[in-house]
Amino acid sequence: MKKVIVTLMILLLATTAMFAAGTKEEGAKKDVTLSVLWFNDANESDVFLKTMDDYLKANPHVKLDLQIVAYNEYDQKLKLMISGGNPPDLARITTNTLSVVVDSLEPIENHVADVEAVKKQYLPSMVAFATNKEGKFIAYPTEATANGMLVNKTAFDKAGIDVDEVSKTWTWSEWETIVKKVIAANPAMKYGLAVDFTPHRFSTLMYQWNGRFLNEDQSNIKFNNPGTIATLKWFKHLHDEGLVPKSVWLGSENPAELFQAGLVAGHIGGSWNINTYNKNVKDFEWKAVRMPKGAINSSVPGGKFVASFKGAKNQEEAFKLMAAFADKAHNEMYSRDTFNIPSRNDAQVTYPSNSGDFEVFLEELKVTPAYTANEWKNTNLSKVTTYIREQIVEVLLGNITAEQAAINVDNRGATFFK
Amino acid sequence: MEIGSSTQGEPDPSDRQGCLPLGIPMKRHTKGNFHQTAAPLLFLLPNILIFGTFIIIPAIQGLRMSFTEWGVFTTPKFIGFDNFIELAGDEVFWKTFNNTIVYSFFTVALIMVYALALALLLYKNVLKGEKIFRSLFYIPSLLSMITVGIAWRFILGDEMGIINYLLRSMGGDGIRWLTDGKLAMVSIIAVSIWAQAGYYMVVLIAGLQAIPIELYEAAKIDGASAPKTFTSITLPLLRSTLLVVLVLATIASFKAYELISVMTKGGPGYATKFIVQQVYQVAFLEDRMGYASAMSIVLMLIISLFTVLQFKLSGGEADHE
Predict the structure, then answer these.
(1) What is the pTM for the complete model shown?
(2) Overall average pLDDT of the A12-23 stretch
(3) What number of H helices and E strands is found in chain A?
(4) Is any Cβ of chain B less than 8 angstroms from the Cβ of A257?
(5) A56 touching chain B per CB within 8 A
(6) B176 vs chain A: nearest CA distance in angstroms?
(7) B178/A247 CB distance under 8 A
(8) Residue B249 placed within a domain
(9) Rounded distance between C-alpha atoms, residue A203 and residue A409, angstroms
């Protein structure tokens, strides 16, 4: 009897252990913690989590390890993670970053049956950005961005100027006359325009004056061209005239803060500023208007994406999550709550406010030449942009001429296009 | 004659191998004398490992990389001395080199003077509230340079800065603290001194307190004036501490990065851009790791040169005493 009991006990223990081990193994297979690298322009990480809440509830085995990194540290952090062989499972990426890490991204077509059907869902400019040189689709577009002008409408009203009306057709020389009147009518206002301290925002003006960074086939840098030199001279003129605050390009002061403080009549920045100003500006009325015309009208398209990387540990789950995040319902929700332009063709977004401002940015995008996107997609251009920024500042300081700056940039840039 | 010193013509017993300074024969190391041989090495081992892993090996790797053309995502390609040859003709590098020297010279010199003045004022424990003042001057050195930079941007900003706001509200014009090249450099130097002097003040206070009080009493009895006492007693006896401060402050000034990045981003133009900023830009924004490594090697050589020079100069003075 004793023997039987002992045998039964051993069998029971062995069975329990076996089942317990089986359950553990199955659980280990299922539980996935996705490492997500993110940066914020405003509240995007919160909205991302909120947007994916239903997905995470439906997939309880998926957990997110969200690392939020300051944007100015972002590229470096991501590059080090990739080169160290430890890329995140997925990351939020800008068009700039995309050009830097493009070769490390895992193509979407390796994880979906019909990649062409996926591509058709997005704006053509976004698909162009997210396509590598082998023609592979390597990132899900999440939001489209554009550069545009936001103005202090209250200040224009005080000067008796209907900014809605004049901005429909204004040129930069007309803008100059108008904005001087606005400054004169508003004692607290000191400047006409703040332009973000980045070559990307400078290029908005450059494209309007028919300037370029690269040559026609984009095989080399060609900053030394009449349009770019004209832009440099005109940009210096605006600084010298006191229409643009020197503290932004010479002292890296934040132009959005100057605009919010009511010190400048307008701000050329990205469409994400709509979200920022919607939250922060309470003292005056502001709105987006069409930018003045130089030789042509132009903005600079951009966007944000989510992508996974070659060698990421949890690629399969990462792609499932990204596909869900990029679907129509989630994209609409994310675009609405982050005040961004949706990346999908079929998205119907009703913003709680500022719909008209988004329309203006979309209008700017419609007249923007295709080469602007192609230039900013160029990996080698991204390596020389900091030097370009320094050379622009040298021109503004009067240390070198616009012509000399253009030659310097071409010389330096050529080393990256070898 | 001092205890343990040698008589003329007779070899110093302490020079003889195996003898302690007083001529007492040292115990010979034996195989079993673990405490005197292996134990110290074992205690040092963790530090040696950390230093080797995080300093020596990366430094050797950096030297190796300086002879290559290498982007983060590409395989390094050996190119000999090409990076160093390019560096010799790189106008931006030499601008940053020049800025680094100017910044280091003024920052280190003024830190030495300011920290020494503070230490002299606050080391005797005779002033009322001396400990509070010591803490007040020391606190900035506990802050991260990023915090310091952000705080001073709020103070010195052209349009949004507190000082210019006050000046304008009193009817004056704002001062271009950070947008005028020369003023930006002055601002950076001033903030660096403010942020670091407290730390060196504490080091110097320790040095001052180690000087025997009897020497000052003797000088007083001999009728020595305060400046004479300072130059004949304080400065000579503080020399080794001053050397430590000099070396540490020089190394820190050559490596200044965060403060400048936050306050001026190296601008306006190249006015406050230093070698370290240029290394960062070339490595991480231009993706030229090999070339950036060559810059780092040159920076390391410059720092080493200055450090050796400082030690040599200090040693030379010691010989005259």
Answers:
(1) 0.81
(2) 50
(3) 21, 9
(4) yes
(5) no
(6) 8
(7) yes
(8) yes
(9) 14
